[in-house]
Amino acid sequence: MTRLNLVLLLAVLASAIYLVHTQYESRRLFTELDRAVAEARRLETEHQRLQVEKRAQATPLRVERIARAQLNMRTATPAITQYVSDPQGVATANAAAAAAASQPAGAQP
């Protein structure tokens, strides 16, 4: 009988130690999860802040101001605009338009 009591006592002690270990591991994992959720919230807030900053940096007025100041760019005016003609390209376009006009409606080329 004492042997049985000793075996049962050891089983209860092992079970208690296992229970304490399981609870400790559960609390540790919960704390780790809580930290990960807080980090995710922080990263999401940072991402939103960076998106707002990106939109603020890309406004047309700011881009134009930088283009004028740093790149010495200016608005194109008719006085400084140069037009280049492509006689061969115009002839090709005219020939294609004439060919399309000469075909009956619904005909495939």
Mean pLDDT: 87
* Spatial gap, N to C terminus: 105 Å
H/E series: HHH
| Rounded Rg | 39 Å
Major sheet details: none
Characteristics:
109 residues; mainly alpha; 3 helices
Q: What does this molecule look like?
A:
The protein has three helices and no strands. The protein has helices at 2-57, 60-69, 87-102. The longest helix has 56 residues, at 2-57.
SSE layout:
Blueprint: H1 2-57, H2 60-69, H3 87-102
How would you briefly describe this protein structure?
The protein is mainly alpha-helical and 109 residues long. The chain has helices spanning 2-57, 60-69, 87-102.
